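**Fold tokens**
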Amino acid sequence: MDVHTVTEGAETFTANVYLVTGERTVLVDAGTMAGVEDVVAEHTDDLDAVVLTHQHGDHVGELDAVLDRFDADLLAYDDHPRRTEEIDDGDTIEIGDERFDVIHTPGHADDHVSLVSESTIFSGDVVVHDDGAFDDGSFGRTDMAGQSREVLIESIERLLERLPASVEHMYAGHGEEFHGDVRAVVERALERAERREPKYPE
């Protein structure tokens, strides 16, 4: 299973978008980088599916462009006009060459899900390795309407309960990818979230 960050070097603000090649070629999120579909096409002629971690604008801005270019299914937790398959907590989906558990992880967004296999996590915005606020364990912001730090903390706890010890690759919605002790990164993110301090102090 190969993972390509197709938004690497983007000059506009965007979530990270990951193209996973293998038995089932899947794009995780779509981002806001114009031309992202062209970068995907540099790696593959066939895209089987797009999976959304959540539907914030920086994760879905170029979704229509991707779906217009490729005859791909759209998997999402929340309703979307182009969704072809609903995913829910406890579901299992194939990405690349691995089976991933869908874990509902709200707090940053009500429809947020994380995708976890025996080796890899696509964590969206619930937990990231580095994002300009914290290095080596940060968490999604919860200071905007419809967000909740308490719910986010519960989501990170749920993620830890269901995270296999063998996971060593972390691909988050922002910041750099991480390879190593993913559990330790998630635990540090939880500790910081539990302090209830603002993520971005004024």
